[in-house]
Amino acid sequence: MTPFGQVPAVCETVRPTRGALRFLACGSVDDGKSTLIGRLIADSGGLPEDQAATLQEESRRFGTCNGAVDFALLLDGLEAEREQGITVDVAYRFFATARRAFVVADTPGHQQYTRNMVTGASNAELAILLVDARKGLLEQTRRHAAIVSLLGIRHVVLAVNKIDLVDFDEPCFRAIAAAFTAFAAPLGFASAVAIPLSARHGDNVATRSERMPWHRGPALVEYLEAVDADAGADDHPFRFPVQWVNRPDGDFRGFSGTVASGRVRVGDRLVAAASGRIAEVARIVTFDGDLPVAAAGRSVTLVFRDAIDLGRGDLLADARNRPTVARRLAADLVWMDGAPALPGKRHLLKIGTSVVAATITRIADTLDVDSLRRLSGQALDPNGIARVEIETATPVAFDAYADNCGTGAFILVDEATGATVAAGMAAASLDRATNVHHQPEDVTPAVREGAKGQRATVVWLTGLPGSGKSTVANAVERKLVALGRQTMLLDGDNLRQGLNADLGFDTASRTENVRRVGEVAKLMADAGLIVLVALVSPFRADRARARALLPQGRFLEVFVDTPVEICRLRDPKGLYAKAERGKVANVTGRDQPYERPESPDLVLRTPELDPDQAADLVIAKVLAAPFA
Amino acid sequence: MQRPAHCTKIMTLPSLAQRLSLHLQCLEDEAIHILREVAAEFRNPVLLYSVGKDSSVLLHLVRKAFFPSPPPFPFLHIATGWDFRAVLEHRDRMAREYGLELLVHRNEAAARAGVNPFDTETGEYSRLMLTETLRAALDTHGFDAAIGGARRDEEKSRAKERIFSHRSQGHVWDPRRQRPELWRLFNTRLAPGETMRVFPLSNWTELDVWTYIQAEAIPIVPLYLAAERPVIVRDGALIAIDDAERCPHMDETAMLRRVRFRTLGCWPLTGAVESQAGDVAGVIAELRASRTSERQGRLVDAALQASMERKKREGYF
Fold it and tell me: 0.90 cut: is pTM over it?
């Protein structure tokens, strides 16, 4: 890390041909962030005369500078905000000097608007953290630095603003810079530079100030022009999410997308990560002619030598350096929704161009951004950051975000409201079997169920012990077989004598029990069978996880709703009686909670139904879905 | 394979174009990515084609994004009846040359009721002839995504606009309900009745647009280049008389001036600037030296501070 205040040399070696620098500016409410950005635009000559006139008019009406030009008004663009005098959304601003173009994301400092900061940070290469020279580092500054680091931004500038209000005092600046160095050391920035400045008066913004001769470093703009924030995505292995299948006629079949990392050459052998299929690049097509090679960031269309079955959502990769493919992953989430995260709830996860159903199965710990410590905690509240475990319905291909932002970043979308509820950064696969890559199958589940002439489905009967799950499941299976269907019954008690003989009845064992039964049910459904599961499965999250294994509409949650008093009376296996005598512990409905399904596909109130009637209701549901 | 009706022409391979600066190359790649995302994720998208310089860049980017396939969605022009003639000529030529499926909508009822840019209050005129017509056209065809050429550098409330801008039922833009836009992972999920506006040029500036037009030799409406035109002065703006028979202000003395336009709206409401820039290079040179913003010539915007935010809430482009 470059020590503070020792970077003048970098400004002498400017490369004029860079792309625009995208950076974000963050700070607390009164640090003068909008004023700084307004000043950057105005001093770079980017403020047209008519906008300047409007600004003067508005400064008189709304300004906080006693009628003098208030640069903050340039940015607070929405009427509602201007009246409140705060910035409540990310604004993007553009300015250019003779040497470089800039895109600034102005992000608000209020704690409740962390989501805006994360949004701005996700597309930035550098961050300016503003502090007020009179106040030094605040909780917000620490929080912002932590978020910037988490989002993988490797270059920060600490802008110590309002230095005029401390009489351009060097020791004051040095103290703030030193405090930040200490705080930021564990955050792993590649460069962190502190610059004393006054946004209001322009000192050390565009040009070096004569009022701070002790500052030998560059002015802010000089530094921004020179900084080389190139993420080096070119050094990473090739990754290409297929975005759009380009097929104008029978002769041309290409796969359009943007190179997420690395580069691709004609003749390269690529693998479709999820299917494991391999193909050789024949052409790299663009409107302006074929390319021999395409690097990160280029939007191109790939054509292969051999026919390959690919579609939107597939991730193409270097066959010798493949991404992780897993259904269970650990990830950091920044929670953006107004309501806390709900483990077990079904979301859509978008990664690259792929969208899959996913649930948060566990909140492992939360990040305390002030201490930078991970605290144990089961809640992920709005604007919170946590390490979670996620399970997806089908395997997803990804890299760790720290290794490759392009293929490690994802969003979670609420299926019902359509809102983006979280920004996600993949950390690792939780599938035990790592380095296992999917072996392509020629006969697919659809072919197998087609051969059986039925729609493969999992019917999951959940309820208290003694509620009648096994009885109903048996009746359903008898009737389906009589109708010529091919079925399998997975009964919890029976499985515990074999597959799950090693498991007990504590919470963790119950979760693992349900996980295994869910996986077996999925395999059997892949085989084309109608699978009946009779399992207490007391926890909602565990059932949601089982549901997520199957395509939508192929999992029917049937709640066998029998009051506990009746279960106790029936007690077909003498379980409740033993529990009363203290012979067994952990009986659901007695010692352990049972979480009722919130929106089951079918409810069977067994006190009002005999097993035959109950079975008919289930069968009606199973056969109602059209056979595709 | 059966192709949709509007795909009347497969594009031919052009010669290698002039190399773009790294900055413009990045902007082009980003815009192509956005356009493909729209084609892949939406059921029935449309491109809002105003025939202006930003629309011309969009058209060019669409040809690039889907090459060698033709544009996979139709182009929609909202006409007011007070469009510059050169705009309509250019529109029809582009549609012909590039095999576009062109849809043209106009608020005939309002025109019959006598709504016109001279007598109707400007804000009301804009609402009836543009906003209402656009909303009606989107509803008629059931478009779920509309691609527009708006840029964040145009105006303050645009600076906070998303690339994928969510519209509630009735095309209403609610600034508080906009979704955070993370990385390049655009959330395209819509509930019934909701729609999306998509702005692939969000991160372009006016100068980027012009330098790209120059580098790629993109055809534009000649009104963007300076020429001798008859103009009158109205509310301080230079108005070019595009159709003398429909101009009730002919008693005002029309003067011949060498002018060009920075934006193209309805001719009676679009101010020209005096200019010597007869080609794109000249426009860029003037732009670099310029001290006013491009919307300055629009009487529609001058009407009210924060007028863009209001118009957007109502469902404007």
Answer: no
